[in-house]
Amino acid sequence: MKLCPCGYYGDPKRQCTCAPQQVRNYLNRVSGPLLDRIDIQVQVPAVPFKELSADTAGPSSVSVREKVVEARERQARRLEGSGVFCNAQMGTALTRQHCRLSNAGLSLLEKAMERLGLSARAYGRIHKIARTIADLEGSETIGMSHLSEAIGYRSLDRSIA
Ligand SMILES: [Zn+2]
Predict the structure, then answer these.
(1) What is the pLDDT of residues 53-96, one digit of tens each?
(2) Distances in Å between the alpha carbon of 71 and those of 89, 118, 139, 153?
(3) Ligand 1 centroid to residue 5 C-alpha, Å
(4) What's the gap in Å between 100 CA and the centre of ligand 1?
(5) The pTM is what?
(6) Cα(4) to centroid(ligand 1), Å
(7) What is the Å distance from ligand 1's center to 161 Cα?
(8) Domain range summary for the chain, segments of one domain joined by +
(9) Residue 20 Cα, ligand 1 centroid: separation in angstroms?
(10) What is the Å distance from ligand 1's center to 27 Cα?
(11) What one-character-per-residue DSSP string does the chain give?
């Protein structure tokens, strides 16, 4: 999805030529309720062809798959008997029960909510995404790093604010 009429808003290499008001109008038209329903928002700048064709040594699909399978198993065990089997399916009560934040975490999230003007829905999503990031690391508690990463995934809300 383009983030502005010219398509370069947020691109580190090319300058967006739109006026701030134009960007805001554009995002507001596509966004609000729509972006709110998307769990994870990440800005992905255009990748230069050279980098696409280079041999990059990212994590192998096999090792990523193993981590995902383990995280799903962890979630299924935690949610056993609740009627759902993964974090994304948790309603408000389950989210409250299984996504506890430390006091420091709560205050970080509160500040982010205020600064980014996040909705109640985004608040719940951030809890669940942070829970999932912790699960991927094999951690039973949600740490500050998990929480800040989850907040970062609401990057488009931030552009609008
Ligand atoms: Zn632009």
Answers:
(1) 766 667 788 999 999 999 999 999 999 999 999 999 999 999 99
(2) 14, 27, 10, 19
(3) 5
(4) 39
(5) 0.77
(6) 5
(7) 17
(8) 1-30, 61-160
(9) 9
(10) 11
(11) --SSSSS-TT-SSS---S-HHHHHHHHHHH-THHHHT-S-B---PPPPHHHHHS------HHHHHHHHHHHHHHHHHHTTTSS--SGGG--HHHHHHH----HHHHHHHHHHHHHHT--HHHHHHHHHHHHHHHHHTT-SS--HHHHHHHHHTBHHHHHH-
In which residue are the tokens 């907040």 written?
Answer: 151
Query: pLDDT (tens digit, 9 = 90+) per residue, 123-153?
Result: 999 999 999 999 999 999 999 999 999 998 8
Q: Give the distance (Å) from ligand 1 centre to CA of residue 10.
A: 9
Tracing tokens 């608040």 back to the chain, one arrives at 123
pLDDT in tens, 26-51: 877 776 677 777 788 877 777 777 77
